[in-house]
Fold:
Amino acid sequence: MSLPIHLDLRGKRVLVVGAGPVGVRRARLLAAEGADVLVVAPDAPPDLELPLARRAFRAEDADGCWLVLACTGVIDGEVAAACAARGIWCGRADDAARSEVWVPAVARHEDIVVSVTAGADPRRAVALRDAIGRGLESGSLPTARVRPGGSSVLLGVAHGSRNAGAQEVVRSLLARTAQLRPGLVTADAYIDNASPSIQHAVAQLAVAGHRDITVVPLLLSAASHSKTDVAASVQGARVEHPGLLLRYARPFGSDPIVVEVLAQRLAEAGAHDLPVVLVAGGSRDPDANAGVAATARLLLERSAFPSVDIAFVSTTAPSVVQALEGLRAQGHSKVALSRFFLGPGYLPRQVLVQAAEVAGVEVVVSEPLGDSELLARVVLARYDEGLTGGIRMNCDACMYRIAYPGRERDVGAPQVPHTHPDD
Structure:
């Protein structure tokens, strides 16, 4: 077992024993890297142009060397023994299995250095090196720097609304995120009702010269928008732009910071010591709806509210009306509604409309999450997860994996993104 290590040999004495094709090639490679190369060989080509001792190898030639490469094919074992006695690393060209050093095939692109070894088969290493080199040059391999605040653009994708205020929240949130990470470039895109679409946003970033994009869904739960619309759009963009590195992060989910912001909005609305109904949009995906329930429980655990129930304004039950009627039946005449949405729009407004249908219950309604530095920290955390690949996502209960009653056909179904008007 060998450990690949890159060495800085600039100004270091390196001895190459033998001046055949292998020895000459390795001597020139080392000299090109700035090593102080000495070649020892009885014969050498006239165009060697490197310091040469034209004679047989002597054990003392290894004295003071940082590295020795034996390339004779005849006395490599003798050279290796002399090096071993002096504690000097020695590479043998005659027997790779007994060598202490292997000289790799090297591919370079800008500041990227890739070294390849393939056991005792240098031709296979060269073939791999050449294939990697072509990939680096063509852009089909990811070459952008991957580090927080580096060259990967944060593309925040929200649902989009006909209410322009929703897009203002998104842009303000992304601006705050960029302030937390100087040098970070952010851009916005939308699934529907606003521009640009994901497809157009990626194309615009590509035209601007960006080659590394991390897509962060600015969505509160892992429902069909994140699992289907955004995910399929990202995959489509990968096909459309093979030179781009496109990463995909996860939604906000039941993050403790999200729960903290919900509590802040309730406090701002004056919802002290009231029973709370956490109202979300609703989904066909049981897993997404369960995520809302988890958020509600976490809100209860970190607050003084006597209870936190859930309701949905569309698609699934319980509805806002059902939740309020249930609390009224328990004797409550005043209830707080926590709007679990990022910004204003049709569904947040429907919370008020549906609540007005229930008589005998006064409601205190909090604002959606909105733009805040706290929420920007969640966006940045999701971005960093996407960069490192450490996305903490539990898909065990996803409707595309589990055959829920009435939804069996969704398991393994091809995912096609929502058709955006811009596309």
User: Anything to note?
Assistant: The radius of gyration is 32 Å.
